[in-house]
């Protein structure tokens, strides 16, 4: 098969990206297209507005929501250490083992998945003009030909750029017409006008409250932002997309609440983001990790991930700050004499934007003004749920409720 490969930040996905995808498929030069949201782009290292897992799921939901056929999204860059140069990405993606398994996982028939493929790196005409300055362009061309879009309104001499690449690098270059609108992610974010963003993308952004003041992380150190970014990639190895985005949402909300109530924003971001990092580990593993942090304090299976997460974050990510580790440990139960950070993570876990198990508007409104009031409302809801399920309330939760004068 002839397989197109289209990489980018997609931060956010917009109509220009969709036009590129549809036009490449319409060109007839490729049979299918693989889209790769970047992880560590050498031009935008740690400067993306959103960590990679958001952009990966955003693209998947957009492609599915728009019903675009023969287009698949790959997380290949999540398995690459360091900067994800195009030559490195292509070396991995075009390997027989990876591409066969990827195609089979996307329901491509075995006979087609296992045949020899021809690969094309899809790009805009503007980037074609700079291709010879890229990192190891000759290595890129060993794995894929170039498939360049002639953009409307772009004055780049596409044929001249293609001829130069053919002459100087011996590469194959194909050109197709791009039918679509001119727009950019930076323009969308600077103006706040999301009208050029596809409806499925807008729904995803609204569900997770993205590209808001809360997700700008103003007042958070560069080191914490980097740690947040890297933790999101690390957790993708252990959590499904729904759980992963939930725990990252809690990180964002925790940082916001830290600003509101005067807590350390760096610690809140990291504690919130990592609070569920052990949630989907095997129960046996959770039990062992939990005992390391809290002995036999937690025995119920549904609670083990909390202290297990503290140990997991400490051993795998090198998190040593006890306030962060304790906030992770007690995010499910709370405890007596909770500090500010622990309260924030406990509350953020229950009310992050994608939570829809009940009407959380009153608690969310209270959380902007009175932390303890919001805690009481949340604890009361938790208590009602436990009673209805016939479950015992954990002694630590009872101590928390006592402190809250409930």
Task: Provide a brief overview of the structure.
Helices cover 54% and strands 8% of the residues. The protein is an alpha/beta fold and 406 residues long.
What this model shows, in words?
This protein has 406 residues and is of the alpha/beta class. It has 2 domains: 2-192, 3-Layer(aba) Sandwich (Rossmann fold), CATH 3.40.50.620; 212-395, Hypothetical protein af1432 (Orthogonal Bundle). Helices cover 54% and strands 8% of the residues. The chain has 21 helices and 6 strands. Helix 8 (158-169) links the parallel strand 5 and strand 6 (173-177). Helix 13 packs antiparallel against helix 14 and helix 18 (340-351) packs across helix 20.
Major sheet: arrangement of strands = 3-2-1-4-5-6
CATH architecture of the largest domain: 3-Layer(aba) Sandwich
- The helix fraction, in percent, is 40-55%
Radius of gyration: 24 Å
Strand count: 6
Order of helices and strands: EHEHEHHHEHHEHEHHHHHHHHHHHHH
Terminal CA distance reads 65 Å
Strand content: 5-15%
The CATH topology of the largest domain is given as Rossmann fold
Which CATH class of the largest domain?
Answer: Alpha Beta
Low-confidence stretches: none
Q: Can you lay out the helices and strands and say which pair or pack?
A:
Layout lengths: L1 E7 L6 H12 L5 E6 L14 H15 L4 E3 L12 H8 L2 H10 L4 H4 L4 E7 H4 L8 H7 L1 E6 L7 H12 L3 E5 L7 H7 L7 H10 L4 H4 L5 H14 L5 H21 L3 H10 L8 H12 L10 H13 L4 H8 L10 H12 L9 H7 L3 H19 L5 H9 L3
Parallel strand pairs: 1-2, 1-4, 2-3, 4-5, 5-6
